[in-house]
Design brief:
This protein has 709 residues and is mainly beta. It contains 4 helices and 38 strands. Strand 34 and strand 35 form a beta hairpin.
Length: 709
């Protein structure tokens, strides 16, 4: 894949190189790096609509580079310690970070990198990241088919016209080594072409015996200043990783088993190889003070190869009461190609005394996913989870035959419009709507019998949004909003017709405040999300075919979120967040009405404090403490009403509290950082169903030495 991305990136660069070199050499630099202010809330504009955060009728968070650097953030788990209501819900196989918010999964559909959907079935590399935007609630107007919990948008570092950069080496627990470099500057004396290059390479063992990983990352970018009011940004991004899959500790009879945290139960020859890359071109044109045009064209590809033991308690490999487990072997490969074209315009105008800030746009996306599933190799060997096993005693690696090959092209088209209408004195109205057309095709070839099964469906849902904003001044906002999104369904109804999408309604109210000369930022949000036509198996006429479904179920998620940033004195920053969420089945013919959905903690909280000494012996010393509370929740499998004496059960998981300590010191061009994570050595788990119980990382350290030039 990297051999495709590199020529694509070079070709896009050559399209504008000659034109850029002929521009007036006296023009000044127009593009500045995103401002670093150390606040997770105070930021100018996010998302496509260019609105101020105080004008948005929904909650959001932004983590800027100052926080990422001071907290020495290494992964997405570290990022989310600073944000309420969004959290890591699972860690399946140890090679990914599964995210959730407000009772909904934040999948690849809801994960973006520089506005392009990003495959999050592999861990996100943080070395090239400038900031992380989290827009909570419904964002279907701008992004189309997304879950209602919110979207995550990762922004990489951009080119700068002044020369500079830094290089660093990080070492840490479990033989973790990570060199990285970041360099930027102008490519011509007229300063109309700038570049930036980020790269890193990480090798690490694990606290889990026999587990290791190897990751390479590179992020090049070019910025062309075409005129004083227009720029073209070309970006590439490539990551390749290899790790040994680890489905964690065992579960027996839906109870967590007490075995050593470091004990690995998988095959030592297992692999999860993944690579992902994209190339994009973004044209930005400030046509006038009131008109702004943005166009994006992008390409992304990812490929994965999983070859390992099956998950405990999956594919018939049930762990027995005495700890005996007959392991089986699985394999699957994926290759996904994605294209996007997008154009939108922001315009400001007046109708009499009424002000408008409007956004209109259109986008087109195409996904082509190819998946090959292999036949499971059953009864590969037998181990006992209560005992260490000798990896040298493992049988030879088996050959697995392909079972099915699935090709799944999806074409998505959308047009959208929204307007922030500001009436004289205090009142603003947010209105918007999006029309979507989604065509999905699935071709499944079954090996052995050599049959091809094809299905095709087209969905055309609308996504509206309406919000009212009361704003006596720029420091206080009260808002209320309604919006809906949609979830595509598979299967057919009792008459054989394809199921329509499930429409999900969301209601949100909140207050936003900037107090004490903006030294205190304090926000409160309450929400309710209702999926009143959840797809479930139809039981009409005694049907037992799970592919015959009906839109008759319902789930309801409701919650409250509180966040605050306090900067009472210079160089001191205190952040706090709290979230309550309750997500339940309110109508179902399968599950107990009133039972909770899995993985969602009712309570989460975060708090951190950071201080930088600005004078005296300790000048340029930064110290900080980061803490996170993660409430009790359920994993396992929900008990089914349709199965007599059903053995499925929920697995209760206890709450836990994490504390990290960070310190950093700068001297001239040098910086030394240190971090102690999980300093109280808390033991708890990320869990998927009843078959991937992954312990959280125990107490660990890292040290980084960096040089700035």
């Amino acid at each position: 894949m990297k051999y495709i991305l590199l020529p694509a990136f070079i070709c896009m660069s050559s399209l504008v190189l000659a034109q850029s070199q002929t521009k007036d050499s006296t023009r000044q630099e127009a593009i500045e790096e995103i401002s670093v202010n150390g606040s997770i809330i105070k930021t100018s504009k996010v998302s496509k609509n260019k609105l101020e955060e105080m004008d948005l009728p929904q909650a959001m968070s932004v983590l800027d580079n100052k926080i990422l650097r001071e907290q020495q953030i290494m992964n997405l788990t570290d990022v989310l310690k600073n944000v309420n209501g969004i959290y890591i819900m699972g860690n399946t196989g140890g090679y990914q970070e599964e995210i959730a918010s407000r009772g909904s999964n934040i999948s690849t559909t809801n994960t973006f990198k520089n506005g392009i959907r990003f495959f999050n079935g592999m861990k996100i590399e943080m070395s090239g990241i400038e900031k992380v935007e989290i827009l909570k609630g419904n964002t279907a107007i701008e992004y189309g088919n997304v879950a209602p919990g919110g979207v995550l948008n990762i922004i990489t570092k951009k080119p700068k016209f002044n020369f500079g950069g830094n290089a660093s080496l990080t070492v840490g627990s479990f033989e973790n080594y990570k060199p990285q470099i970041d360099v930027y500057g102008s490519l011509n004396k007229e300063k109309t072409i700038a570049f930036r290059l980020n790269a890193s390479h990480q090798q690490a063992q694990s606290f889990r015996k026999y587990v290791n990983s190897n990751t390479f990352y590179v992020n090049p970018s070019l910025l062309f200043k075409i005129s004083d009011n227009s720029t073209l940004l070309l970006e590439g991004d490539y990551i390749k990783s290899s790790t040994i899959p680890d489905f964690g500790a065992g579960i027996i009879n839906y109870e967590v088993v007490d075995i050593p945290r470091e004990r690995f139960l998988g095959v030592t020859w297992g692999k999860y190889n993944a690579e992902q890359g994209y190339a994009s071109a973004r044209y930005d044109w400030q046509i006038s003070e009131k008109w702004h045009l943005n166009a994006l064209m992008g390409f992304r590809n990812y490929a994965t190869d999983l070859f390992s033991n099956t998950r405990p308690n999956a594919s018939g490999g049930i762990i027995q009461t005495n700890g005996t487990w007959r392991r089986s072997i699985q394999r699957s490969t994926n290759n996904d190609t994605y294209f996007i074209q997008q154009i939108d315009a922001n315009v400001s105008f007046k109708t009499g005394a009424i002000e408008h800030q409007a956004l209109v746009g259109a986008d087109a996306e195409r996904f082509i996913t190819n998946t090959t599933a292999y036949r499971t190799f059953s009864n590969y060997d037998e181990i006992n989870i209560f005992q260490d096993y000798d990896p040298n005693a493992q049988p030879t690696i088996p050959n697995l035959d392909p079972s099915t090959a699935t090709k799944n092209p999806i074409n998505r088209y959308g047009v959208y419009a929204q307007d922030l209408i500001s009436f004289p004195k205090y009142v603003k109205l947010f209105v918007g709507i999006r029309y979507n057309q989604i065509k999905s095709i699935s071709d499944v070839f079954t090996y052995g019998v050599n049959t091809l099964t094809s299905t095709e469906k087209t969905d055309k849902p609308f996504s509206p949004k309406l919000g009212i904003i009361l704003q006596p001044n720029k420091k206080h906002t009260v808002f209320a909003s309604y919006s809906n999104s949609f979830s595509l369904n598979t299967g057919v109804d009792i008459n054989g017709n394809a199921l329509s999408p499930s429409i999900i309604d969301q209601y949100e109210v909140g207050i936003k405040n900037r107090l004490f000369s903006e030294k205190l930022q304090f926000n409160v949000t309450a929400y309710q999300i209702i999926n009143s036509n959840l797809a479930q198996t139809s039981l009409i006429n005694g049907n037992t075919n799970a592919n015959i479904r009906e839109l008759a179920g319902e789930t309801k998620s409701k919650g409250i979120e509180v966040d605050a940033v306090f900067k009472p004195i210079k160089n001191l920053s205190v952040m706090f967040g709290y979230s309550f969420n309750e997500t339940k089945y309110t109508q179902s013919n399968i599950y107990v009405i009133g039972s909770e959905l899995r993985y969602n903690p009712k309570n989460t909280a975060n708090a951190s404090i950071s201080y930088t000494f600005s004078q005296g012996t300790l000048k340029n010393l930064n110290v900080g403490v980061i803490s996170q509370y993660f409430g009790s929740r359920f994993a396992g499998r929900s008990t089914r009403l349709t199965v007599d004496n059903d053995t499925f059960k929920l697995i209760p998981l206890s709450n836990y509290f994490l504390v990290d300590f960070v310190v950093g010191y700068e001297y001239k061009n040098w910086r030394l950082n240190g971090k102690l994570a999980n300093i109280f050595n808390e033991l708890n788990y990320n869990i998927h169903d009843d078959n991937s119980l992954n312990p959280i990382t125990p107490a660990n350290f890292s040290v980084q030495l960096g040089f700035t030039f």
